[in-house]
C-alpha cells in the first residue's frame, strides 16, 4: 500500500527527523552558500488567546529594527486598548525594564484591562530584531496570565509577584496563528519555524541562485527551499515559473508552500518576493480550502509563515 505522502501527491515531500521521501531531490542537502543570509528588519507574530472566561483575544507582537532604531509594538484585536509601543534609540532600549497598564478607550467598552511587564535588560540578539534569550515580555489580561514571551521562568516569577497560587493560576490557552518576516539584502533567507504548537522547531532556508543547464549551454535562476538542510522544492527557470505552490509534510502535517517572485524580475524597483507556508487542518486536496465540516479538528489551529524578501543585491 502506498504511504500517505505518495497517495496525496506525487510531488509531496515528507520532512521528519529520520527521512525525507517522495521526491527525486529529497535526499540532496540544501545547496550551501558562502553568502550570509539576508537580515530581517521586522518580525510580527499573531497570537490567539482564549481566556478562562472563553473570551478570545488576538495579540500582534512586532519587533523591528532600522539603522538607527529598534522597537517593540503590541496591538490587541481592533486596537482597543491602544497599542503598546516601546520606543528605542540606537542599539539601546530607553527603558529596558518596566510595566504599563493599558485601559480601554471607553468606560463602556467591553475591552479588557491589560498589563504589560517587560525586561530586556539582559536580552541577547542574533541577526534579527527579535531577542533570542535573556528577556521576557508578559501580558496580563483581566488578571489572567495571557502571553509569556522569552524565558519561561518569567511565568513563575510573575505568579509570585501577583500572589497567585501555583495550583490556581489562571492561564490563557495560546496559539500562534502566523509569523511575518520582512527581510532586506540578497536572495538568501534563513529562519526557524514551528508548524504546530506541539511540533519541533525547524530550520528554513530559501535561496535563489543562477545555475547552468543542459551541460552548461546557458544559465537560469533556480529557487531552492530547504527544511533542516534538506531540499523540499527546487524550481528551475524561475523567471518563467515565478509563481507556484508545492505541498510538503512537516511533523505529520500538510503544509502548503507558495512563492511569488514576480517583482524580482519584472518590478525591480520594488524587488519584493513573497513566500508563504501554511498548515492545513484537513486532508482535502484543494488548496486554501475553507473547511466547514462538523468533523473539523477544533484543537488544531492552522499556522502561517510569511516571508517578504527584498532583493537589494
From TrEMBL:
* Name of this chain's protein: DUF868 domain-containing protein
Amino acid at each position: 500500500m502506498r504511504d500517505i505522502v505518495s497517495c496525496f501527491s506525487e510531488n509531496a515531500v515528507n520532512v521528519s527527523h529520520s527521512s525525507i521521501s517522495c521526491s527525486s531531490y529529497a535526499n540532496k542537502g540544501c545547496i550551501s552558500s558562502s553568502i550570509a543570509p539576508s537580515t530581517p528588519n521586522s518580525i510580527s507574530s499573531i497570537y490567539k488567546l482564549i481566556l478562562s472566561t472563553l473570551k478570545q483575544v488576538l495579540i500582534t507582537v512586532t519587533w523591528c529594527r532600522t539603522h538607527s532604531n529598534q522597537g517593540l509594538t503590541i496591538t490587541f484585536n481592533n486596537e482597543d486598548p491602544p497599542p503598546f509601543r516601546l520606543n528605542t534609540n540606537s542599539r539601546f532600549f530607553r527603558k529596558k525594564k518596566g510595566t504599563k497598564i493599558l485601559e480601554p478607550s471607553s468606560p463602556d467598552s467591553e475591552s479588557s484591562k491589560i498589563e504589560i511587564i517587560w525586561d530586556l535588560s539582559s536580552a541577547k540578539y542574533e541577526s534579527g530584531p527579535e531577542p533570542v534569550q535573556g528577556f521576557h515580555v508578559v501580558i496580563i489580561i483581566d488578571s489572567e496570565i495571557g502571553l509569556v514571551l522569552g524565558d519561561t521562568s518569567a511565568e513563575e516569577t510573575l505568579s509570585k509577584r501577583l500572589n497567585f497560587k501555583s495550583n490556581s493560576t489562571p492561564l490563557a490557552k495560546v496559539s500562534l496563528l502566523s509569523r511575518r518576516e520582512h527581510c532586506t539584502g540578497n536572495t538568501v533567507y534563513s529562519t526557524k519555524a514551528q508548524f504546530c504548537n506541539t511540533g519541533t522547531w525547524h530550520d528554513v532556508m530559501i535561496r535563489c541562485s543562477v545555475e547552468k543547464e543542459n551541460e552548461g549551454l546557458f544559465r537560469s535562476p533556480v529557487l531552492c527551499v530547504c527544511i533542516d538542510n534538506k531540499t523540499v522544492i527546487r524550481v528551475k527557470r524561475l523567471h518563467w515559473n515565478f509563481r507556484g505552490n508545492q505541498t510538503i509534510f512537516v511533523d505529520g502535517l500538510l503544509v502548503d508552500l507558495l512563492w511569488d517572485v514576480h517583482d524580482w524580475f519584472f518590478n525591480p524597483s520594488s524587488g519584493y518576493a513573497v513566500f508563504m507556508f501554511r498548515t492545513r487542518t484537513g486532508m482535502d486536496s484543494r488548496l486554501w480550502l475553507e473547511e466547514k465540516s462538523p468533523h473539523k479538528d477544533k484543537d488544531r489551529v492552522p499556522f502561517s509563515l510569511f516571508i517578504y524578501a527584498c532583493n537589494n543585491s
